[in-house]
Amino acid sequence: MANTSGTAPFFLGIDVGGTNVKAGVVDNTGLSLSKVSLPTEASKGPLVGVENIGRAGELALKEAGLALTDVAGVGLATPGTMDIPAGMLLDPPNLPGWNNFPIEQKVAERLELPTVLQNDANAAAYGEFWAGAAREASSLVFWTLGTGIGCGIIIGDTIIEGAHSHGAECGHIIIEMTNGRRCDTGQYGTLEAYAGAKGLLRRCQEALDAGQPSALRDRLAAGAELTPLLIAQLAELGDDLALGLVLDTARYLGIGTTTLMHTIDPQMVLFGGAMTFGGGAHPLGRRFLEEIRAEVQKRAFPVPAAKTKIDFASLGGDAGYIGAAGCARLRFKRW
Questions:
Q1: Do 10-128+318-332 and 133-314 have matching folds?
Q2: Is the dihedral of CA 15, 170, 313, 157 positive or negative?
Q3: The domain defined by 133-314 carries CATH number 3.30.420.40
Q4: What DSSP string runs through 68-98?
Q5: Structural domain boundaries of the chain?
Q6: Whole-model pTM above 0.70?
Q7: How many CB atoms lie within 10 A of CB 10?
Q8: What is the rounded CA–CA span in Å between residue 189 and residue 34?
Q9: Is 142 exposed, middle or buried (0-12, 13-18, 19+ CB in 10 A)?
Q10: Cα 199 to chain centroid, rounded
Q11: How far is CA 98 from CA 43, 117, 119, 167, 196, in A?
C-alpha cells in the first residue's frame, strides 16, 4: 500500500560507502520519507555488498510504508572510480575488490527496479541542489570536506559527469606548482593535498616537528590522537598553531573556489562533509567560512565575488541518498 504522506512518484535513494549503506525513500518534492543504515561489509566482496544494498533498500521501503511497486526507480551513489554510462565500478579505493563490477545491473536485478548509478559526490551535490541549501539556485559547486575533498557541479539541473565519468574531481585541481605536497593519488600540489583532513594533519605534524609552540604537543604527549577534531578543539581555545591551520585550510579552499568561479560562474558554492569545523552552528565554523569568503574576495573577479553566494550545506549526511533519489527522478522522469 502506498504511503499517503508524500507526493508521488517515489524514489529509492541509496548511498554506498566503504563502511555503511544509507538508504531512504524520497518523494517527488525531495522530502525524505525514511532513512536506514546498514554495514556495507565491503571487505566481503561486491556480491555480499549488493545483498546489503538490497536489504537496506527493502528496509527503507518498509519504514516508509511502501512496496517495490510504489517506487519509480532507484538512484545508487557510490565512490569512484566508475564508468557512469556503463553502470560500472572500475577501481574504487573505498571498496577494495569491487573492480570492474557492474553494480548498476546487479542492484537493479536484486531490487527488480530500474536503477541509475552516480558518483557519490555528484549525488550529494544534487541533493543540496534539489532539496537542500541550493534549492533556489540555478547552478551549484558543492565541496565535500573529509579525508579527501570531493566536489559536485550542477548547472541548470545537469550534473557535470564529464566524457569519462571524472567530471568535477576538483579536489585534484593544482594549487601549487613548485614543490607541491603529494596527494594520495600520487599527484603533487593538489587542493586535497593541502586542505583534506590528511593534508591538515600532515601540515600540523610538520609544524610541531619544526618546533612551533602549541598546546597540541602536550595533548599528544598525554596520549591524545592527532585528528582534525583535536585541532579544532585547540583552535576554539585560541591555540595559535591550531587556529592558523584551520584558517590556512580555509584559504586553500578559497583559492580552489575562485578557480571554479572563474570556470563555471556558479550562482552558489556550498561546503559540506565532516570537516567544516562545526559549520554555521559553531563560531569556529563561521570563522572558517568567513576566511573562505575573504580569500575569494581577494582573488575573484569583482562581479562573481560580489554575487556568488558561499555558504554551508544543509542536508548533512542525508545529501547522498536524497541526491541519489533525485538522480533516479531525473533519469526516469515520472512526474
A1: yes
A2: negative
A3: yes
A4: GGGEEEEEEEE-SSEETTTTEE---TTSTT-
A5: 10-128+318-332, 133-314
A6: yes
A7: 25
A8: 41
A9: buried
A10: 17
A11: 9, 15, 15, 21, 25
Which residue from 137, 143, 172 is spatially nearest to 157, judged by alpha carbons? 137
User: What is the topology classification, in CATH, of domain 10-128+318-332?
Assistant: Nucleotidyltransferase; domain 5 (3.30.420)
Question: Which region holds residue 111: left if phi is over 0, alpha if psi is between -120 and 50, else beta?
Answer: alpha
As given in the structure block, the three cell numbers for residue 331 are: 533519469
User: For 125-172, how does the pLDDT look when each residue is reduced to its tens digit (9 = 90+)?
Assistant: 999 999 999 999 999 999 999 999 999 999 998 999 999 999 999 999
* Residue that is written with C-alpha cell 565535500 in the block: 144
Cα 145 to chain center, whole Å?
7
Backbone angles phi, psi at 188, to 5 degrees: -120, 140
**Set of cell numbers at residue 289:** 567560512
pLDDT in tens, 232-290: 999 999 999 999 999 999 999 999 999 999 999 999 999 999 999 999 999 999 999 99
